[in-house]
Amino acid sequence: MLTYDSTGFRLDGRPLRILSGAMHYFRTRPEQWPARLAALRAMGLNTVETYVPWNLHEPSPGRFERLDELGAFLDEAHRQGLWTIVRPGPYICAEWDNGGLPGWLTAKVGRRARTSDPEYLAAVDAFFDVLLPQVVDRQWGRPGGTVLMVQVENEYGSFGSDRVYLDHLARGLRERGVTVPLFTSDGPEDHMLGGGTVPGILATVNFGSDPETAFETLRRHRPQDPPFCMEFWNGWFDHWAKPHHTRDTADAADSLRRILAAGGSVNLYMAHGGTNFGTTAGANHEDAPFNSTDWTHSPYQPTTTSYDYDAALDERGLPSAKFDAFRQVIADFAAENPSLVHYLDDRVAELPAAAPVLGGRDVALTEIAELPFGDAVASPVPPLFEELGLEQGLVRYTTTVPAISDARPLTVEGLRDRAALKVAGKHAASLERGVAAESVTATGGDQVTLLVESLGRVNYGPLVGETKGITGVRHERQYLHGWHAQPLALDPLPPTTAYAAGDPGPELLARGALHLDATGDTFLAVPDGDHGYLWVNDFLLGRYDRRGPQVTLYCPQPLLREGANTLTLLELGQAAPSRVELREAPDLG
């Protein structure tokens, strides 16, 4: 059993320094888990931490998917000699769409999410009833068990102060059989620790530097708890149209050394970042976290497909310079404190061999198909994505300007997040949330069409839970009514059998054939594209965007097969890319 006091942790009575690394099972392919986890152990870590994204596992009310992945990941961690820390939410942040909360739920409960509201809590309880048996059955002390700790919510002190809510979650975890220590994690600020902690439950802090000050703040609030940095931000994530983030290796290693010297346990966030496959990437608001008084009007910033994070293991799972530096810090600490550093088993961990990389080549896109929209939903106003039962993807909105109207400007309200506007069948404007557009006019009898795309829900701050789509279109001051909306989910690839030879273009599916004698990792680029989506064998890798910083999309070996493979592209800008490049190395900016 794991116990603790102000001096540190003990596992079955033996002193233990927890040396953990974050790796999310949902950001890597299951076939890659063994190698990634073995690499974490080879770095000197004895524990792996993962979030659990609720919206991945319950995409619509009562419909559960991929639930067994968490248990399978915890089992693989045991095989690789690692203890585990589980952070089941219900909110996770994690630069993940909506912070892991289902869009169907937040659209319904609105600002009541992450509170003690009965409707919200009922949905949380129903999900935990289904999810938590996988965790309970794998707690340390049970056969094959690895779970040492379980989190209550996530950085709640950065959001709210509803103690009844936190108490309900903690009590619910215990009632469902969680017996290992519970914990909270918050920024090392007085108001965050005041709002986010629960009496009698371990409090931890998240930071990227200055561990001495952070731990001193924690100690003021919790003198009885051992110091634990639950998220040591050794790198950072990227937003589209912003610079690629890196952190100096020596600086990160120095902060890790100081965390350990201060008596702290640590969880590297991230040890291996992975990929925001599909439409799972979240979004943030610029300058919002600590120095802005108005979060709701700061620029919207969608997160890139890559979640490389400048971590110790890169997106492909290979060791970076930080891997060697962190391994040395941990080895030095272990040599000086042999009684504190031990592992689940006595294996000598070695780095696994890397997967092969495919050679560079071009794949021509030679076939095209129309987007397979379904039947239209009629509504007096344009329905939101959530009202159409769509978490992510596209909605095509269509209406007609009243016949008696003369030429007047159009105004699109509440766009989230990008749209192509057509008037009378011709492209009139490319619209983007928060970006001023040139004036577009329409005349009576003109058909107005908007193809609206979601780029990810905000995952941190007061705008978590926002809806997607548009809220209205005005013709001068008059709202246009009588809409027809056609939703289209993009993950997985929408089924269509109407491919035929033709030239690629905007808003068309374009595909090409890739023949392989042997498989391997590769990196795909769309050099002639504007922005859109790319699938491999019907699996959605994610978004591409000419604004960068990310240029290539990582395609892991398990998605490819010997023989025939299919690459499919959807261009949503005004470009007409006719090829996809396979490259031997990533380009993240």
What does this structure look like?
With 589 residues, this protein is an alpha+beta fold. It folds into three domains: 2-276 and 317-337, Alpha-Beta Barrel (TIM Barrel); 361-365 and 493-583, Jelly Rolls, CATH 2.60.120; 373-489, Jelly Rolls, CATH 2.60.120. Helices cover 19% and strands 28% of the residues. The protein is built from eleven helices and 33 strands. The strands form seven sheets. It has an eight-stranded parallel β-barrel, surrounded by five helices. Strands 26-15-27-32-29-30 form a six-stranded antiparallel β-sheet, with no helix packed on it. The longest helix is centred in the middle third of the chain and has 16 residues, at 321-336. The protein starts with a strand and ends in a 6-residue tail after the last strand. The model has no long low-confidence stretch (mean pLDDT 96).
Task: Compose a concise summary of this entry.
By secondary structure, this protein is an alpha+beta fold. It has 3 domains: 2-276 and 317-337, TIM Barrel, CATH 3.20.20.80; 361-365 and 493-583, Galactose-binding domain-like (Jelly Rolls, Sandwich), CATH 2.60.120.260; 373-489, Jelly Rolls, CATH 2.60.120.260. Strand 4, helix 1 and strand 5 form a beta-alpha-beta unit.
Mean pLDDT: 96
Distance between the termini: 45 Å
The outline comes out as globular
Helix content percent band: 10-25%
Task: Count every helix, treating DSSP H or I runs of 4 or more residues as helices.
Answer: 11
Strand coverage percent: 25-35%
Low-confidence stretches: none
Spatially, the strands of the biggest sheet line up as: 4-5-6-7-8-9-10-11
CATH architecture of the largest domain: Alpha-Beta Barrel
Per CATH, what is the topology of the largest domain? TIM Barrel
Secondary structural class: alpha+beta
In this structure, how is the largest beta sheet organized? 8 strands, parallel, barrel
Please name the fourth-level CATH homologous superfamily of the largest domain. Answer: Glycosidases
State Rg: 25 Å
Total number of domains: 3
Name of the top-level CATH class of the largest domain: Alpha Beta
- Tally the beta strands: 33
Domain Beta-galactosidase 1-like first all-beta: 384-488
Family: Belongs to the glycosyl hydrolase 35 family.
Active site: 155, 231
Keywords: Glycosidase, Hydrolase
